[in-house]
Write a structure and sequence with these properties.
Rossmann fold; GMP Synthetase, Chain A, domain 3; 35% helix; globular; binds xanthosine-5'-monophosphate
Length: 530
């Protein structure tokens, strides 16, 4: 078993997922629990996660340095490495900031921790601090252009440190590094599993995992059944997206007709959403309730320009509607007690899901909810990542058209319109969105795109249209690739496709003067602009 000490990284849970993929048991704990957990659980290895703090700040989360003397292999990742250096006599400073891809080179391949790694590959960084002096006994394994101490070790003490993130999808060979660490940890469990793991390349997907998935589905259904009980009803916030669809199917399987799907048309969704949703529920022979809230939604967003406020208004409005529905059902003696949401882990962690984590944005269905609610939340996918939800959907036999759809955020177009959401700007956003989708489809690219959308940036620029001056809005196009949402890269669209999108948007969407393409990775930029 490996203990992961959580210093508040966005990806602590993801480290846990990767270690589990290697067939190793994981426990995620808070820093202050470390001594007790080491004593009681006797882990074979410890991973110190990343986190948003700086080790030299007052009250930065820390651990008792005695753990470095126990002889248990320790891997520090990002903040974890900086804390290791700080506690053992090295020096950490506010250094060169790096967010996103970096080229990493191994200088010293003699160590077991770099087994089967090539000399050079791409890794993902996300740090503002840097180790500038290593503690005694530590050696450099490899560096990137910006970070001399990107991978370090003290193999006598089995202590290792990485400035980059091996757990994220876009770090090449990340799983191999974690595998090497688990081997150093000498896990009995792990060795039993190793033959299966050996055949896999960068993404480990074993028969054991497929079985695990089957068991997971069974477990989720049982949990839903147990939570909901024998009599209560569940209303479900469904959007036609894969997360809420998979959550709905699992709930139907668990409680049958005691599940009532509700779609709130808030006017911020893509045009085809309602039709698509009806199609899904026709398949499972349940008629969703459709609530038209278009006018009211826009009224509540009037004058609102702050992204967090937008999310909170939308989250609160949803709950208000669902609680009204609950009351109506109760009046008919139908005991509705639960609200099903398709919340997944990336929604949770960005909304400050753990003790030491920073709030990145309040996803409308997590941090954007009112503090008091009459409905109890049912979130069976809360601990899963997007690609795991897709796998569950496929395993449940959902057709590709239901599963392989672009995610669309609950606050919809509102968070793709910087500044106030007016009827006019909403129409502009909708028109531009249709153009981007049509052009991706025509080029045969749409099916491979994770997420695509235009953003009304709120910036204005000068254009000459038909010899006249136009001081119109700048539209940014964002098209990204990702699997688990935790990291993403921008899609290298062919120039001709970009040109067609640009020409069509400036020609067909009124009051647009300029189109730009967003070439920022996540991190640092989140996928949505707000
Ligand atoms: P970010 O912008 O956080 O987006 O990198 C990651 C994924 O989450 C979606 N997203 C949301 N989904 N409510 C949602 O249901 C929200 O408030 C929200 N904010 C972002 C985003 O579309 C992307 O798929």
């Amino acid at each position: 078993m490996i203990i992961i000490v959580d210093f508040g990284s966005q990806t602590t849970h993801l480290i846990g997922r990767r270690i589990k993929e290697l067939g190793v048991e994981v426990r995620i704990i808070n820093p202050e629990e470390i001594l007790a957990k080491v004593k009681n659980d006797k882990p074979e290895g410890i991973i110190l996660s990343g986190g948003p703090s700086s080790v030299y700040e007052k009250n930065a989360p820390t651990i008792d340095p005695i753990i470095f003397t126990f002889g248990i292999p320790i891997l520090g990742i990002c903040y974890g490495l900086q804390l290791t250096a700080h506690l053992l006599g090295g020096r950490v400073v506010a250094g060169k900031k790096e967010y996103g891809p970096a080229e990493f080179r191994i200088q010293n391949s003699e160590f077991r921790i770099v087994d089967e790694l090539p000399q050079q590959f791409t890794v993902w960084m996300s740090h503002g601090d840097e180790v500038v002096r290593l503690p005694k006994g530590f050696k450099v394994i490899g560096s990137s252009d910006g970070v001399p101490f990107a991978f370090v070790e003290n193999s006598n003490k089995k202590i290792y440190g990485l400035q980059f993130h091996p757990e994220v999808e876009h770090t090449q060979h990340g799983l191999q590094m974690l595998k090497n660490f688990t081997e150093i940890c000498d896990l009995n469990n792990y060795f039993k599993h190793q033959n299966k793991v050996k055949d896999q390349k960068s993404k480990v997907k074993t028969t054991a995992q497929s079985l695990k998935l089957k068991n997971e589905i069974k477990e989720i259904k049982e949990k839903i059944k147990k939570t909901v009980g024998e009599k209560d009803y569940v209303i479900g916030a469904v959007s036609g997206g894969v997360d809420s669809t998979v959550a709905a199917i699992l709930t139907v399987k668990a409680v049958g007709k005691r599940f009532i799907p509700i779609f709130v048309n808030n006017g911020l969704m893509r045009d085809e959403t309602e039709e698509h949703l009806k199609k899904i529920f026709r398949k499972i022979k349940i008629k969703p309730i459709v609530i038209n809230a278009v006018g009211e939604m826009l009224k509540r967003l009037k004058g609102i320009t702050d992204p967090e406020q937008k999310r909170k208004i939308i989250g609160n409005f949803y709950i208000e509607i669902f609680e009204q529905e609950m009351k109506k059902f109760k009046a008919q003696k139908i005991p509705v007690r639960f609200l099903l949401q398709g919340t997944i882990y990336s929604d949770v962690i960005e909304s400050q899901g753990t003790k030491n984590a920073a709030k990145i944005k309040s996803h409308h269905n997590v941090g954007g909810l009112p503090s008091k609610m009459r409905l109890k939340l049912l979130e069976p996918l809360r601990h899963f990542y997007k690609d795991e939800v897709l796998e569950i959907g496929e395993k449940l036999g959902l057709p590709d058209e239901f599963v392989k759809r672009q995610p669309f955020p609950g606050p919809g177009y509102a968070i793709r319109i910087r500044g106030e959401v007016t009827t006019e700007r909403l129409l502009m956003e909708r028109q531009a969105d249709i153009i981007v989708l049509e052009e991706l489809k025509k080029a045969g690219i749409l099916k491979n795109v994770f997420l695509s959308f235009p953003v009304l940036t709120g910036a204005l620029s000068t254009a000459v249209k038909g010899d006249g001056r136009n001081f119109g809005e700048v539209v940014a196009i964002r098209v990204v690739e990702s699997k688990d949402i935790m990291t993403s890269v921008w899609t290298r669209l062919p120039y001709e496709v970009l040109q067609r999108m640009s020409s069509r948007i400036v020609n067909e969407v009124p009051n647009v003067s300029r189109v730009v393409y967003d070439i920022t990775t996540k991190p640092p930029a989140t996928m949505e602009w707000e």
